[in-house]
Amino acid sequence: MQNLSTILKSVSKPGRYTGGEYGQIIKDKKSVDLRVAFCFPDTYEIGMSNLGVRILYGALNEMDGVWCERVYAPWPDMEEKMREFSIPLFALESKDAIKDFDIIATSLQYELCYTTAVNMIDLAGLPIFAKDRGEDSPVLLAGGPCAYNAEPVADFYDIFSIGEGEEALPELCSLMQKMKKDGTYTKSAFLREASHLKGFYVPSLYNVEYNEDGTIKCFEPKYDDVPKRVEKRIVEDLNTSFFPTKPVMPFIETVHDRIMLETFRGCIRGCRFCQAGMVFRPVREKNAEVLNRQAKEIFKNTGYNEISLTSLSISDYSCLESATDLLLEWTNPCKVNLSLPSLRADSFTKELMEKVSSVRQSGLTFAPEAGTQRLRDAINKNLYESDLMNAVRLAFEGGKSLVKLYFMNGLPTETYEDIEGIAVLAKHVVDEFYKMPVRPKKPVSVTVSVSCFVPKPHTPFQWEPQNSLEELCDKQHFLGTKIADRRIRYNWHEARVSRLEAVFSKGDRRLSKAIAYAVGQGMRFDAWDEYFDYDKWMDVFEKCGIDPSFYANRRIGYDEILPWDVIDIGVSKSFLISESKKAYENKTTPNCKEKCSGCGANKLGGDVTWCPKMK
Hints:
By secondary structure, the protein is an alpha/beta fold. The chain has a domain at 4-231: Rossmann fold, CATH 3.40.50.280. The chain has 21 helices and 19 strands. The strands form six sheets. The chain has a six-stranded mixed β-sheet with strand order 2-1-3-4-5-6, covered by helices on one side. Strands 15-16-17-18 form a four-stranded parallel β-sheet. A three-stranded parallel β-sheet has the order 10-13-14. Helix 14 (385-397) runs parallel beside helix 15 and helix 18 (512-520) packs across helix 19. The protein is globular, with a radius of gyration of 24 Å. The chain starts with a helix and ends in a 32-residue tail after the last helix.
């Protein structure tokens, strides 16, 4: 590309844009009949750390005739140069403009990446609204966690991948290859056919009408052959599904520069605030032998000195003991550290701490989420203070003195007594340190990190209002007044960021005009502190005639049509309503290993013996 080498000398971190890394996949353009640009709407360092993108990049490139290339959002200094020199958004491998590809796929991981994602469409040289793009333009596909409520960005994309993509996306690509080969391809015909595939939502094939009060009147498919609801895709057998063992090695430091091994998908716990715990059901595990083989292959191909076992809750992996034993047979001699994130306090053991090097060498993090047992029961955390105290005692006995605790404020049914309970619980951890007859030489330090509750689609709390901005800020201040011990550090999440997240989390198609207007005003990278501007967003909403409180701060009735009702995650709405009501009775639901509560997700399949399949 003519001007690329020149402008790279004048931007920060030029390694973000060069490509050419060890492990990248290059194919002969003449031998491929379908080109896919896989976009991640954030910086190279964050996108290269995303395991889902690595899996899909590899799975698509396994296909004959398909070449998938990577695209990351340019930092503002690079974007400025690209616009100045008329360089359209390009793929790292070939440096070709992505507007000339067949499919442009985007992973939507977080609501505050929406402006960045839409700006990438504009930077590619394409109209941002799907209705304005012609038959000859690429098919724009989006997926990821945010696709479970695609409506705020539904007007920008042609199709959404719902659920897990390593089998679904190759199937979609095969459909396009077939239609192009037999001469039946047009974009409109392809989208109609794609809507017949399980796990693909085509927004243009649905009509949405609204009541005078702004609620949804009806949400219906335009044609009889288009499904009323789109059922998510899952991979039933993780042991045989594709997993990348030759990852692309970054030229510059990334957020997670290590081997990432996926142990299982789903979660048995059922925390009522947690979207991931609902949308990734049912639980499916990878066996220890497969995990160990994949780890060895990746180590051989990369030389990384750290392995992270990833999942929503690693303590719930039924093969954890056998997997760590197998890994430690060769990781210790090779000086490779083993990391176990997302440990639960009620599953933390002395044996685990002694076996895993990363746990031996650093402080420990636990997530009680709420300061009192009543509120932990209301959110179905199923964790007791005694569990936490047992865990921190083990940590202190093991020579640790640093403990980090994660909480939320603004949870449904929360009172100021619950908030004060956070300070009390943190003080109990400090006191536990000084009860130890033998304790570490370093003084104890407890960090309390508190985020703001954001109601998420497909959870028991999806009908809940978020606290007002004033309430969230007041609760943050109140907690600060209750923490007087200098051994306790208090961090809190910016409430204004959480409010905007709630607007887009529960939003509908009418928000697209606000997103488009914001992009036109130069807004992007909203997830970055230096570019987030709450007041500017409020001005955008006002100019577009949108009341953010309608989405963030309104209690929704159980009988109301929700923007995301078109998506079927397998978990029934009746189960979510039941869980919502139990929260107000402070009643808990047992985890899936203890008892099946009939959420409905096991109808999708799975390979775990304690997760029965519905007939």
